[in-house]
Design goal:
147 residues; alpha+beta; OB fold (Dihydrolipoamide Acetyltransferase, E2P); 2 domains; 4 helices; elongated
């Protein structure tokens, strides 16, 4: 069972490094504990129960604290590649509904703090869930980007 848990641990680590959010950290910790447990206990059912309980406990107990810490420390180890890029609004963005922004060949759902009309240039500020917060690029910002 040791090799199975080692494989599971490696898979979760790979998933964590290839995703933008901290999605599998709970499973990494649980699989590491279960990997160590598998050295002493051979019964798979016991190992699986330990893995499941630890995963659920860590997720429920620490998800909000981890997100708050990341936001407080402004940690962006996995910064989205679209942040600080400019794009063109192809579907109007209203204060209460998302629009669509084209960044290169990619189309993304975007939200804004104020209405942004179609064909306006925007800059991507941050990702919020599956949408991106954008701001309209004004002349001052355009001039600052050139310098």
């Amino acid at each position: 069972m040791f090799w199975i848990w080692l494989t599971i641990l490696i898979l979760f680590i790979l998933i964590e490094f290839t995703t933008e959010a901290t999605t599998t950290i709970w499973f990494i910790i649980a699989s590491l504990v279960t990997l160590l447990l598998s050295i002493f206990i051979d019964e798979f059912l016991t190992q699986f129960i330990v893995f499941t309980v630890i995963s659920i406990f860590l997720f429920v107990k620490y998800k909000n604290e981890l997100n708050n810490l990341i936001n407080k420390l402004n940690i962006h180890a996995k910064k989205d590649k679209l942040i600080d890029k400019s794009g063109l609004v192809i579907k109007e963005i209203n204060k209460n509904s998302s629009g669509i922004v084209k960044v290169g060949k990619k189309k993304i759902d975007a939200i804004a703090k104020k209405k942004i009309n179609k064909s306006k240039e925007v800059i991507i500020v941050k990702k919020i869930g599956s949408e991106y917060l954008v701001e309209e690029v004004n002349e001052k910002r355009k001039n600052n980007k050139k310098h």
